[in-house]
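Escalation from tier 1.

The customer reports that the assembly of two entities below gives different structure tokens on two consecutive runs. Tier 1 could not reproduce it. I'm attaching the input and our single run for tier 2 to review.
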Amino acid sequence: MMALGSKQLRAPRSLRSQLIVAIASTTLLVLSLTASVLYGLLRQNLYAQFDDLLGAKARALASMIEQDGTEIDVEFAAYPLQEFARQERPEYFQVWDDNGAVIARSRRLGEDHLPLINGSRIAPGIESLQLPDGRPGRAVGLSFLPRVEGEELETASSNPEENDTEGDGDPDGIDFSRRRPVTLVVARETADVERVLSHLLWLLPTSALLASLTIVTVLAWAITQRLAPVDELTKQMNEVDADHLNDRVQVMDLPSELQPVVERLNDLIARLQVAFEHEKRLVADMAHELRTPLAGIRSTLEVGGSRHRKANEYRLAIEKSLRICRQTESIVCTLLSLARIESGREVVDTACVDLKLVLHDCWEPWQRQAINRELTVDWDVEPGVFLQTDATMFRLVLQNLYENAVTYTNHGGNLEVTTTTLGNHYVIHLTNTGCELSEPDLTSIFDRFWRADESRTAVGVHAGLGLSLSRRIVDALGGNIAVNVREGRFEVCLRFDNDSIDREDLDEERPRMRTLSSVKPAL
Amino acid sequence: MRVLVIEDYEPIRQAVAQGLSEAAFAVDSCANGRDGLWYAEGNDYDVIILDLMLPDIDGLTILRRLRQQGSAARILILTAKDAVEDRVTGLNSGADDYVLKPFMFEELLARVQVLVRRRYDRVSPIIQIDNLVIDTASHAVQRGEESIELTKREYSLLAFLAMREGQVVSRTEIWENLYEFESDAHSNVVDVYIRYLRNKIERPDWSKLIHTRRGFGYLLGSEVPVS
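Tier 1 run:
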């Protein structure tokens, strides 16, 4: 079993699942928090209402406590109210005097006592407690001055100053010095509140959960619907392969965010298709250029050796096979040169080359053929111009260009070799008549094995590698090669920076052109 | 048997034409599609060896046109295009065989012989008529226990008659299948070669196999059909 590396590749997570998980968890969190806050608020509210009611009750009971002389009369002690007297879930009260002595208490308290809770009428003290019978409850405590018998209820207050309406220290003629403050505590169970709260305790989370599930379900459906174009896009992309590059991705109802992506995708597929077709064509052309001569050699030798023949017949078969071998060798060598130049392994040996001399020197092998084809050649080459370049490689370029020109110029046509200076460049023009190429052909003219003749006749003689090799060489020499077709004239322009050009009036000690043996042109 | 070779690459065209000719086929050859189509439409070839990448008219166009015209010639594509889609296209367009370059000539020859047999609805390379046995693969001819040596033309004539055993074959047909299109042979050469053949394969103690039908031609068979 192969050991896994430290960085294990994880399968990418689905956008859909990420969205659903994010929305689900966020929804659940928000709803849970909301439920919690709501529960807290409701609990607070319910207890506040409870406390208010209990406080109001305590204040009401407080008004039923009078001071008669020095005695405190708790009216509801002798005649307990129903809620204090009942057996089932009673309420409780207890009253203390200012000395802390219990003045009155619910009978239902039995031996138990309520806690002493101080507070005012306005702000009664409130405590949670356990009632004597074990029920949870809350108690409200008021400390106040009981109403003196005959006193109006509204003026009774635990704070004498509040009753001093005239501001003379004497609250309306009542002698507050005799009043004895008492403390009343009323207690009641909180079972109802707790019951409501316990209902809320399961209702709120359950609702939050159900709401989350509903929202997530609806959103998941909506996301699935909205991501359907992405699924379609994925499906179509999976169908794109090397054998189906004609197809383009087309998705209905594509979101605007994805349209630029699809357009770019289709553009890339189109370019890939062109590249694949180019590659296929290149392989087919190369196969033709290599297989055909091999078939020629093989069939010539097999038929030649199939029976006993005269010596002359054998010799002719061998000579023919050798000729084909040489042509094939040239193709292979050209391909290897291309490979070397493209890999950067070709060494450029720069020297000073007399341009006019090398242009004429390379033309010489083609002169006879030009004469045979009755071609006129016009020269307009500036003398005394020296090019800093690799002489061998430059000659190879010229020989390829001359071969093409002589081959494809119409019988009786014209060739021109001229040089000019254009801005920062020195340009060598090679123009010939009889061109049958069109503008669209120029986009492929530098491709390997490209030929205008789709039947690829003259196998071994013209392989379609000359211009391809020339371009690679000129690039390696730091120049530029371009072609142009205009009104039946084909023009090749070799362009070099003026930096690589010297003129004869400069340093006389600079080395001149090296004389080299001619190099076989590429086919 | 008559073969047309349409191939623009001279070494292949010349070698194949020579090899087939030496194998007793009457061979015509062309270097471009226009000439090839003209030859194929104007003559009844048994087999056409067709390159695909031809100047003027490409091989696939020639193939489709011949099939549209109902040509009965067996067509063998000989090409450097080895992609599956090229082979499928060629066969689906009506080719009978598809051979890639480079190829073994012996194999090409064997495939041509197969196509010739198919043209005449023959399954086996061995043709036996009475006690005459012709091996079309090795060109060996035997009658009874005796091997018979035939020249190239004699064998071509015998094989052509044997393929059409029991059928009357005219002098014109015989002449067209023995000689190339541009041959300058005389018109009585057929009679001459019939005589040569009779001298070699017919003996007094052997049954007559080559029969003359005056005004019509000749037929090869063990019995003369009742007129």
